[in-house]
Write a sequence for this structure.
């Protein structure tokens, strides 16, 4: 099987990631606003509003940064495992796969409309409410699907074995998880 | 070297904009600082900890707190370069905003702007270290961009610039913390 990368328009991946970043930011912004407006009066503070606007734009940009940097890590490990391909080509595919989180967050936005957040015990409510649990699962599965589908992309684009393609995804994610655990346990 | 200098200037501008913004606007109706809004009891802010150590006369603790707080900011600035400079940008912007917020709160509590400048001026060169660390973060981001899109890998000169500026940052922060803890604060 040969993947013809030149047939895919250059900006499709970027456009999908842009939609993803907007949906994700809007979703978390709506959830944050709902919680903060009930929880305390800080949402009315002007300074809080400035910081919220700043956070909103940073969240949009961070989605792009995470996409590019995670793709770079997968690309570097694929090269280490004797794969051969251009980073630009890989970026096209990894961007396209964000279509699953886009669908996921669209459903989450729709589902969240039906959730009524209580005034007390918000944290317990967010963890125990059935709709919120379903929303959590949708976000996790759609994001994981994006990574799982990168395995065949790496296999055919970099012309490596299935085992190496799995390794190219698992090694960076595993290393980052371990680093995260280390920092949480010993540094922070 | 030219790229690095430009990066440091950009870092300074990114720090300066929120700093000026925070000084220009006042939150009089709220009578509170960012630290009070975000940090709730019993967690204390860095400024409170330094002030308490200063009041108890423990100069070594003051030095320790100032140095490690500034070092933490600088390390975040440098490592932020790994996220294509986004981490550096956010940290510099917040640092500028918070610095002005502290000045603004002190001014609101009765100290004149001239007194604030006189008091903080002699040991404010630690900011140079923080701006250089911001510049270093952006420089690393540029190197990563080069690897990604130009297939251009870092040279020995790039590594030299990173190493020398990192050492310079630590030395500046050490010296500034020493001056602040043992000389200028009385």
């Amino acid at each position: 099987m040969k993947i013809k990368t030149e047939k895919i328009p250059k900006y499709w991946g970027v456009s999908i990631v842009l939609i993803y970043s907007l949906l994700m930011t809007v979703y978390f912004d709506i959830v944050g606003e709902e919680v903060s407006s009930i929880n305390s009066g800080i949402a009315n503070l002007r300074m809080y509003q400035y910081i919220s606007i700043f956070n909103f734009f940073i969240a949009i940009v961070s989605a792009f940064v995470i996409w590019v940097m995670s793709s770079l890590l997968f690309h570097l490990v694929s090269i280490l495992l004797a794969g051969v391909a251009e980073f630009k080509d890989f970026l096209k595919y990894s961007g396209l796969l964000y279509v699953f989180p886009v669908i996921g967050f669209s459903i989450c936005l729709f589902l969240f409309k039906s959730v009524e957040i209580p005034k007390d015990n918000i944290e317990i409510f967010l963890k125990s409410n059935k709709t919120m649990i379903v929303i959590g699962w949708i976000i996790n599965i759609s994001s994981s699907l994006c990574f799982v589908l990168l395995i065949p992309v790496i296999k055919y684009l970099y012309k490596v074995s299935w085992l190496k393609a799995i390794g190219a995804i698992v090694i960076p994610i595993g290393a980052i998880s371990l680093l995260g655990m280390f920092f949480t346990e010993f540094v922070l | 070297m030219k790229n690095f200098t430009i990066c440091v200037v950009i870092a300074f501008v990114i720090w300066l904009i929120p700093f000026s913004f925070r000084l220009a606007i006042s939150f009089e109706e709220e009578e509170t600082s960012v630290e009070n809004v975000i940090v709730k009891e019993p967690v204390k802010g860095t400024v409170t900890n330094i002030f308490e150590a200063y009041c108890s006369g423990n100069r070594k603790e003051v030095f320790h707190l100032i140095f490690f707080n500034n070092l933490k900011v600088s390390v975040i600035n440098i490592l932020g370069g790994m996220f294509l400079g986004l981490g550096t940008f956010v940290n510099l912007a917040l640092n500028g905003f918070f610095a002005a917020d502290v000045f603004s709160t002190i001014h609101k509590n009765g100290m004149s702007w001239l007194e604030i400048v006189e008091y903080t001026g002699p040991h404010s060169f630690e900011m140079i270290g923080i701006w250089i660390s911001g510049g270093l973060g952006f420089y690393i981001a540029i190197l990563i961009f080069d690897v990604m899109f130009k297939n251009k890998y870092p040279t020995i000169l790039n590594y030299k610039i990173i190493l020398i500026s990192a050492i310079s940052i630590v030395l500046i922060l050490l010296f500034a913390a020493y001056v602040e803890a043992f000389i200028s604060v009385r």
